[in-house]
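Customer ticket, subject: "Can you confirm the structure for dCMP deaminase?"

Message body: Hello, I'm evaluating your service for our small team and ran a test protein. I'd like someone to confirm that this is what the system normally returns, since I don't have a reference to compare against.
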Amino acid sequence: MHSNYNQGLIIGLCGRLGSGKEEVAQIISKYQGTECQVISITETMNMREFLGDSLKKMEEKQMDLDLSSYNTKQLEELEKLLKDTRDQHFHPHSTKQKLECSLTYNPRHQILYPITDKYELELLYQRNYFHLIAVEAPIIKRYENFMKKYQLNIPLDLFCIIDDVISDNISEFMHKAKVQIGNVGDQKDLLISFYKKYQDIFRPIRPNWNQYFMHLANVVKQRSNCMKRAVGVVIVKDNRIVATGYNGTPYGKQNCWEKGCDRCNQNTKQGVDLEKCFCFHAEESAILEIGTKKSKNMVMYTTLFPCLQCTKIILSTKIDKIYYEEDYDKSAAKSELHKYVKVEQIDSSHYVH
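Agent reply: Thanks for trying us out. I re-ran your input and got the following:
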């Protein structure tokens, strides 16, 4: 349960016209009750005025609503007309004021929509308690939603141009969103899509220690030079990192992916000819960094369950506990390791930042 004394999350919704951002905001608000506040950054009235003014100007310039006969020059003129009209009806100053108000302390979750501007995103991403959700829907559904909401009757191709003008650069924002909600069916389907993503939407403001260190172990594994499976390890004492390690060839030898290890480069099957492998394992590398005596009573975070060789080394160091993310398919060490060391598998993927 969200504490009344903690800063609430700021959840931004982005998506193209008619994708269902308002519906998603209302679903989140209804589910969270009084702990949630919905804030519309761009007023619906601005959109209505923009549409009315745009259609009036098209009529004055005798521009047909059916774009099938338009040439390139006419399409460019229409796009310029729509952009000029857009700039008259959407005022960044009022949006900025709403955003800055939302950045003061507030124990309630705040749902901001729609996020459409680069400035908005840059400002919000400065806060650790902000994350972005993309609402996606097929174009026909978006077209139908838009027509119904604004009581319009315009051709699909005109809607697409209006969508591009209003949703300028929105695709870039949507790619940055760590959570996507699909709006492909009816209200029931949208609810199901929301419930599936609930844990990702209402994540803690910051990761717990286990998520934090496992995330860092995954960052460490990016330094692996092994041709086969990359592995990363972080060794911790009193929630402070004392060593890191990744798998690969020893210092001074060619990297594995530079043919530094013949076994790995031949894609030898798992568990076969291990004595011919010239790569350190991540666990070995981390323990070598601090030494076996200093490893006593420490905690190890590894992206892969240790093999038998690493298990023997770990037992010799008297490491107190091991957290791992992925099972090692043929690890004969699992039953032995559980006898002497506290072992726990964790999934850090639910923490979305």
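A couple of notes from the result: The chain has a mean pLDDT of 87. The two ends are 19 Å apart (CA to CA). Feel free to reply with more questions.
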